[in-house]
Specification:
Length: 114
């Protein structure tokens, strides 16, 4: 829970900086646009990290390494780490804060149109 709140606050600081530096006006529409960008990026990166950490691409990666390399270097290929070993962190704070930002953006969008 603490990591989710920290990630959410950091994302809102990034949203505020994006509004000030890029949009140069503090309106509801600029907040909606900035939060869509930040929330979408966080959610996308969280989902990609989740897919890699589950081991979904391990078989494909190892198979492609075997096909592309020569038989002399097969020991080096088998010693390489799998993608699931690289992405071993907790992705739930990133996914949670990205989804929460997108929900808040949706609420802001409803307020903007009604």
């Amino acid at each position: 829970m603490k990591k989710l709140v920290r990630s959410f606050l950091i994302a809102h600081i990034v949203i505020t900086l994006l509004i000030v530096l890029y949009f140069k006006e503090l309106t509801l529409l600029s907040y909606i646009n900035a939060s869509f960008i930040v929330g979408g990026v966080l959610t996308f990166l969280g989902l990609v990290s989740f897919v890699f950490s589950t081991g979904f691409f391990d078989v494909f990666t190892v198979s492609m390494r075997k096909v592309v390399t020569s038989k002399r270097r097969m020991e080096d290929v088998m010693a390489m780490r799998k993608p699931s070993e690289i992405f071993s962190g907790n992705v739930s704070p990133m996914l949670g804060s990205g989804a929460l930002i997108l929900v808040i953006m949706g609420i802001g969008l409803l307020i903007f149109y009604f």
